[in-house]
């Protein structure tokens, strides 16, 4: 997720007096800008991870993610107090395929390439959400559902496969090292045991020696377990840093629907809109091309259709991209269609801090004059991957 943490806008005639502030805080310059709502960002139109949350406009602080069908039943039972009441501010998300026994037999080598059927089933997820709020002493309710899947999911990238092999070799080396170390310590301990038993002249002394041997063997095993646990914790940290990436042709699909009541009839839910997302992309090495399409209808029969593309060239410290986005709107307020074309350059100043420079044509009302814009600013990136397909 990327947040614009510094922003300011002003007209070109004031730019010469504010150049230092422009560089330090980030700014946007608009010429002949129209008084219409801006187009959304391209990333906000992409297929969401949880469509049900998106259509309802909620960002839950906690989400139920059951691992078995029984967990789903328990979560629903708790949320509805035994299926007796409407769940309040409830969020649920699960992947049916990973609840079955089949995934246990799937190795990473078998998942490198997927058929269309395998891609659909392995990436299919279901989400649901509810929201309740008080308005004029009446309870307004909202319920949404959605699904997301990948029609095509490309293949595991060469860099990811190389990294997986490196991790396997590292784990094999550690396993051999611990085995050899444990065997050496066990052998030394047994030699010491034989030596002491020969020197012991009484049965009591021999018993004490055996007690010592058992205590030492327990200590060695505990130390070995601790070392293994420490390495496992370290490996878990590396796992968080490393997630296998896929490349090639990828197509994401999602759909969500919503139901809401109104202030007149609060006892029943009515259809409250729907949304459909399609995000095709192609990823190869440092180059990426992603397309976006979103069709949205709300409870007031307002419709919007937005589509566009972005071409991205990335390196470790910088990224260059070209973006086009167009929006078509049908509503009671008769909003005009809008489109935007821009060129973006991003440079990494620090691990998560990026300098962003943009230049383009923001034609928000395609029936009016064009709007040329430029921008410069700082963005702080909280996610581990800046671009993910």
From TrEMBL:
Superkingdom to which the source organism belongs: Bacteria
Protein name: DUF481 domain-containing protein
Source organism per UniProt: Ohtaekwangia kribbensis
Lineage of source species: Bacteria, Pseudomonadati, Bacteroidota, Cytophagia, Cytophagales
